DNA sequence: TAACTTTTATTAAATAATTAAGAAGTTAAT
DNA sequence: ATTAACTTCTTAATTATTTAATAAAAGTTA
């Protein structure tokens, strides 16, 4: 059948992820010969999807022509949700915002209207952008909870009777929808555009209100049998009898979540600890601010702030030690919104690894702090759409799964 | 180039693992059309590698002809080592022993002659079998220690100066050699011939003197970046201050290894515990026997024996709970030599999961006991050879990695 | 600056692989 | 029994893809 359609989409996908590639690079990536790749590329240029972008430096011979996607051939709608706030952005093929990132409150707990509100907001933003829907490759959504990305189901939030949340949004917005767990999308972002690029085995810790985990195993985002892999924050690690939100006690989260950190800071101050922090800065009403203040104090060298952050970092490190024993990754990346604290945590985590890892395992594992930072989840949501891009039009191709 | 060579090897491989397949099955598995697969099959029949083995039952239409490997077209040398004893067997294409399994003592610690002794023993057994070397696909070896299967290196045992242990044996025996960690080979055996067959995500616990782990992730044996993945027995899980053989304290192994179980039994008896066991049966000189006696007593309902076994089982279960949170497997399989104790352990492990797992994760995970049992490692070693079979002659095929 | 090596690009010829159509064997229902 | 539905098998026609040969562009060397 029309296999060239598949190859073309594959080329588009690779150009999206790599930004600029030569014909030989692409031939390698799509596992097709150079003449065939050339043919596909010229078709794509005819169609106006791809442009030549000059020559790469010579490596000792003729310089290769480089190809890129035209930035306006397609767009992706990226959505990053947490339990209270949702962000939406529209990105072009260079991952650049074409509208400002919209931020609005959308509580997920006990809110049966959340799916409707989400769909309407997405529709509104697309409409306002003026981009025609046939120019949008799809909608990628990162959300908390137990998410099965393949089935498109969120088992924890965003209940929609009779249909999956993906189907629901998809029929309302009339575009393909892909969802996944927030931590996993952050890992995907790191794999495609961040510190895990070119790495085959990487673990990405999502430092946020909880401690999430996304795993890159053998070059692919790992999801597990039901799509629930990576429940790092609920591994039973402590005998502290502290009840966790999940109903069990002793979860990693009970000693490492940012809320616990703030709580400890507050108790410390009450107990008379010396610090440049004051109780007002740690107000329970604004945990976001409270955490930023603690990190800022630590950055300025406040001993007490460093101490409580280090304690949490050390405990995360104990968890990471387990991960390293089991999965032997090449690199562990601290990412997510709380990665601002990453630099402070690097030392205590390393300390925990020195104490709890077999040296042969820990010496080969780097600990890195993400450079993607705040935007990781939105980037990951876009990457999710483009990962699936070749599948969309190919569903009718019988031999799709027989080819690269 | 000669791609048909690759396809033929691929077919041979699949026939080895599945024993009997129709042309349509094979077409599916090698991702080639039916006419092409037919062509390859008839070539293989001409060469005398494959035979028709009658018809399969109809599924509502014409019955498919089934194909199998001739059992004597090729053989595999399987080696299963532990720190004291090494087993060697020669298997045919139906995984049947063609010689008796040879068992001999070969201590690995502080024994610089071990590699030489191993190579000589292998040579001797091949010679004695009368099988010509060109009929042997290769040698598969399972061994304890930190093993990098891809590089063919064992970092813990079997030191050979200047060359890897694989290269060493290979040049001495003049056959391709593949090695891997014992627990991982057991997992491979379960994947190809045991309880993990057709499963995409399975964890295989190797119950032996330690507690090993082999992971099947996305249908493949997972090895990690340096090949060290699966160090389950050394995850830091206890605050018991018991020193582990690895130098750290609190490792899972310090509460679950069979030696610890025997030790506890002995101490219990000394402390006056009521049991049908007596101290003589638990002699330190023969731990193998001691363990069998404990399991036997438990099987007969001895309360004390059940108690200490359950305790170890529960602690393994705590470790398994962590695995399930992180990897969300479809099934957890208790395998290896100690899997005789598996049935006794099923209950306490399940108990630990109920206490330490988020229900959504544990309810979807089955706990199974292996049926492969004692032979798992030898089977896995053979499977390792055949997994690599298609690569061996194809190394010169430029496009090898571009095709299925 | 010419000769040579290296890398990329283009084309035509050769081969590899699939599709499509029809024949043949089974089951099940009328 | 006969027919319909379905699966497997076989063959020829068609299409897809690669190989190999050549040209073109850069760098390297003497």
UniProtKB/TrEMBL annotation, chains A, B:
Q: Which domain of life is it from?
A: Bacteria
Q: InterPro entries from the xrefs?
A: ATPase_NBD, ROK, WH-like_DNA-bd_sf, WH_DNA-bd_sf
- A Pfam family this chain is assigned to: ROK
What family classification does the UniProt entry report for this protein? Belongs to the ROK (NagC/XylR) family.
- Which protein are we looking at? ROK family protein
Which lineage do the record's taxonomy fields give for this organism?
Bacteria, Pseudomonadati, Bacteroidota, Chitinophagia, Chitinophagales
